[in-house]
Amino acid sequence: DAGVTQSPTHLIKTRGQQVTLRCSPKSGHDTVSWYQQALGQGPQFIFQYYEEEERQRGNFPDRFSGHQFPNYSSELNVNALLLGDSALYLCASSWTSGGASYNEQFFGPGTRLTVL
Amino acid sequence: GESVGLHLPTLSVQEGDNSIINCAYSNSASDYFIWYKQESGKGPQFIIDIRSNMDKRQGQRVTVLLNKTVKHLSLQIAATQPGDSAVYFCAENGGPNFGNEKLTFGTGTRLTIIP
Q1: Nearest to A55 among B41, B97, B101 (CB)
Q2: N or C: which end of chain A has fewer CB within 10 A?
Q3: How far is B115 from chain A (nearest CA, A)?
Q4: What was the pLDDT predicted at B71?
C-alpha cells in the first residue's frame, strides 16, 4: 500500500512564475492538507481539502490556491512566485469519519521548491 | 494569536537514557495535540496524540503529558535509541471540534542520541 506521494520531488522556478504541485493521498483517505515548511522551521498550514472543497485555510495569500479531484488527489498552485516561497511543501492525508476528523495525518516526503 | 513554542531547540541524550521534549502552547481553546518526528529528507511522522480530556497517553516507548493549567505538552521517550535522532514537533488544532483541520506546529526540537 503506497503512502502519500508527491510530485515533483524538486522544482526550480524564477520569480513571477507559477507552479503546480501534486499529491496523491494514502489509499482510503479522503482529506488532503497542504503545509509549507521553511528551512529550520515547523510546517505552516496552508489549507485542507475535503469533498473537493477547501474546508480550512491558514494565513496565506490568495496566490496560494488548491484543488481536490474526485479521486481525492490534490494540487497546490502558487502564482506570482516570490523568493520567500522557497520551501518544502508537504502534503498530508487523512480520512474524515463525519464531522471533525481527529484521525492521524500521514505526510508525504514533500516537494522542495526553490525560487530564484 | 495562535502559537506553539518549544523550550529547547536542541537536546542531546545518551543512548539508553530517557528523554523529555517540552512544548508550550498559547491557544487554550485547542482540544487536540500531536507529536511528530521528522527525519532528514522526510515528511513528519505521527508519534502520538492526545485529546484535551486526557492528561496522559502512552504508546510504545513514548508518553505524552498534557497540562492544560499551564498550557504545556511534553513527550517522553524511554530507552532512547540511535533511530530516535530527529527533529520533534508538537502541534495543536487551535480550537474545539476542529479536529485535524488546521494544525499549528511549533518550530521543533532537534534530538540527538549519543552512542
Answers
A1: B101
A2: N
A3: 25
A4: 94
